[in-house]
Design brief:
The protein is built from 3 helices and 18 strands. It has helices at about 5-20, 75-80, 145-155, and strands spanning about 35-45, 50-60, 60-70, 85-90, 95-100, 100-105, 110-120, 125-130, 130-135, 145, 165-170, 170-175, 180-190, 190-200, 205-215, 220-230, 230-245, 250. The strands form 2 sheets. It has a 15-stranded antiparallel β-sheet that branches. Strands 10-11-12 form a 3-stranded mixed β-sheet, with helices on one face. The longest helix is centred in the first third of the chain and has 18 residues, at about 5-20.
Length: about 250
């Protein structure tokens, strides 16, 4: 396995997290509180493997959400470290909004660090990306690349309509549109789930992403797929999960 293939593998994994998990924005409706949860995913890209984790911590003032991505198996022989991302969230007028974003990539050489602060009162986004200072206008309903996970789970739990979303990623805003397909199923290491599938395809490019959310486990994401030219290239599937208010606990 070449170093180029290893690099391509982790580029694809980051795309899954940043785009494949970037679900649509929501039309305002009454929201349910999100439970604390932890979930682990087995990721495969050809013969290469990785491990991904999501952790939402519910607090009195809001939430703290963290994701991690680490090489596993053969990939770990060539690449060490992890991609760790976290964001602080609060509920404003029934909607979950991000306050900040921190990202540290120790797989990259040199180590890459990113920071954004979302000033909703001042309508600005401040921070730093690749050593460049960021100061841009805020967008209504905008999210960062991981806060969208919680926004879509909240929307699905509340049976809200899903439309479009602006995501602040890599120092700029990106707009996405999605297709939602209910009545789907996904078989994973943690079991088979009835799901709501959220799909996204790049305009003018032969790449697409798919994400499955399971209603029976509070719309936890259970499977993520990445396609090129209509062919499945990589898959992340749920291997273990724990949800606080449902008293659900599984092990790998």
């Amino acid at each position: 396995m070449t170093h180029i293939e290893i690099k391509s593998f982790f580029t694809r994994l980051v795309l899954i997290v940043a785009i494949g998990l970037s679900p649509p924005a929501v039309i305002a409706t009454e929201r349910q509180a999100m439970p604390s949860f932890r979930s682990t995913y087995e990721v495969r890209y050809g013969l290469l493997r990785g491990t991904m984790t999501f952790h939402l911590d519910r607090r009195d003032s809001g939430y703290v959400y963290e994701t991690s991505l680490r090489p596993a198996g053969v990939a770990a022989w060539f690449k060490r470290g992890a991609i760790i991302e976290n964001t602080t969230l609060e509920t404003v007028d029934g909607a979950i909004v991000p306050l900040d974003y921190y990202g540290t990539d120790t797989i990259a050489n040199p180590v890459r660090k990113t920071y954004y602060r979302f000033d909703h009162q001042g309508d600005r986004v401040f921070g730093e990306y690749k050593s460049q200072t960021i100061d841009l206008p805020m967008r209504a309903g905008g999210h960062n690349r991981i806060s969208v996970h919680i926004a879509v789970m909240s929307a699905l739990q509340s049976n809200a309509n899903l439309s479009g979303l602006s995501v602040f990623d890599r120092g700029r805003w990106k707009d996405y549109r999605f297709t939602v397909d209910r009545g789907r199923t996904a078989s994973t290491r943690a079991g088979t789930f009835d799901t709501v599938e959220v799909r996204y395809a790049s305009d003018g490019r032969d790449r697409s992403w798919s994400m499955h959310f399971a209603p029976d486990v509070r719309y936890l994401p259970v499977m993520l797929d990445y396609y090129e030219d209509g062919k499945l290239k990589s898959r992340a599937q749920l291997s273990a999960y724990w949800i606080d208010d449902e008293d659900i606990d599984t092990s790998e």
